[in-house]
Automatic annotation (TrEMBL):
The lineage of its organism: Bacteria, Pseudomonadati, Bacteroidota, Flavobacteriia, Flavobacteriales. InterPro entries: cNMP-bd_dom, cNMP-bd_dom_sf, Env_Response_Regulators, HTH_CRP, RmlC-like_jellyroll, WH_DNA-bd_sf. This is cAMP-binding domain of CRP or a regulatory subunit of cAMP-dependent protein kinases. It comes from the Bacteria. Keywords: DNA-binding, Kinase, Transcription, Transcription regulation, Transferase. GO terms for molecular function: DNA binding; DNA-binding transcription factor activity; kinase activity. Residues 15-116 form the Cyclic nucleotide-binding domain. Signal peptide: none annotated.
Length: 199
């Protein structure tokens, strides 16, 4: 999202997080802009029974947790390292100044946030009304479309998500995901090779 040069000029710091370490918790006051340099981060919530719901997964070059920086509300979810990760941290005031000085970056954030709103609206509809197979295809297509390494819509995209992560993203049980994925493979909607899903 923001180039390394601009981040360094704005005095961003590159911080290391270990797998399972939290970057912030639901209810925390936002203080930084976060951008992934390496590794993977998930934003999640847990219900009263402890079941996890993953709001999103972010890898190299992607940012997360920006809305509270713009609207002055507390984080609505947790952020946790899925793998060991290195993350750019830029204080909120300096982040907002970067946007003021760089209209193209500001426009990119507007587009990204609009896309995330679309994803949230889509998933609310899917979880409340659609069958498991349909939900899984929608989430796989969303990741394929928004993956930077995917060159064409017709090329096979390797899903870098576990069955458990797919369950947590779609509000399904992992057993349901496993059954639905097998059915989708039988229908030719996806390919399973070495336990990895391709769409």
């Amino acid at each position: 999202m923001i180039s390394k040069d601009i981040l360094l000029e704005a005095e961003a710091v590159l911080k290391e997080y270990k797998r399972g370490e939290q970057l912030f918790k639901e209810g925390d006051t936002p203080r930084y802009y976060y951008q992934v340099y390496s590794g993977e981060i998930k934003m999640n919530n847990h219900n009263d029974d402890g079941k996890e719901y993953i709001q999103g997964i972010f890898d190299s070059g992607k940012s997360f947790g920006e809305p509270p920086l713009f609207a002055d509300f507390k984080y609505p979810a947790n952020a946790e390292a899925i793998t060991d990760a290195r993350i750019w941290l830029l204080p909120k005031d300096k982040f907002l100044k970067v946007l003021e000085k760089n209209p193209l970056i500001h426009h990119k954030f507007t587009s990204t946030l609009a896309l995330r709103l679309y994803y949230k609206a889509m998933m609310v509809s899917e979880i409340s009304t659609q069958e498991p197979e349909h939900r899984i295809l929608r989430i796989l297509d969303y990741f394929k479309k928004n993956n930077q390494n995917t060159t064409t819509a017709s090329s096979l995209y390797k899903i870098e998500l576990t069955r458990q992560q797919l369950a947590d993203l779609t509000g399904l049980r992992v057993e349901t995901v496993i059954r639905a994925v097998k059915k989708l493979e039988q229908k030719g909607e996806l390919l399973i090779k070495d336990r990895k899903i391709y769409r």
